[in-house]
Amino acid sequence: MIPESMIKVRFLKADGTLDHEVDAPAGTNLLDLAQREGQPLEGACEGQMACSTCHVVVAKDDFCRLPPASEEEDDLLDLAWQVRPTSRLACQIKLTEDLGTLTVQMPGGAYNLDR
User: Fold this and answer.
1) What domains appear along the chain, each with residue ranges and CATH number?
2) Which of 3, 30, 53, 70 has its CA 20 to 30 A from that of 90?
3) Does position 114 have pLDDT exceeding 70, yes or no?
4) Strand-pair category, 55-58 with 18-25
């Protein structure tokens, strides 16, 4: 049996301090992992990319290793709370073996236009 590749994910609080880190298998969706780990990401659309409530800020060093955001994701990020140049939607980030590590910061709030 071949062991699964594990990716170390560091979750930072809104103030930039480390909340905690966890190892997750390659193929894991970041939103699913964040919710399992108690991170404050609503994911109101359940990962269907119809909201921006799973917005995270990816560390600059890690951002360049992610596939580029789709046009639809970019459009939704325009509606997110405190968007930064390295903002992404967690529902669109799949942990891949080549990432190795990923550091994401919670934005500290979210707009949910469905309510």
Assistant:
1) 6-105 (3.10.20.30)
2) 3
3) no
4) unpaired
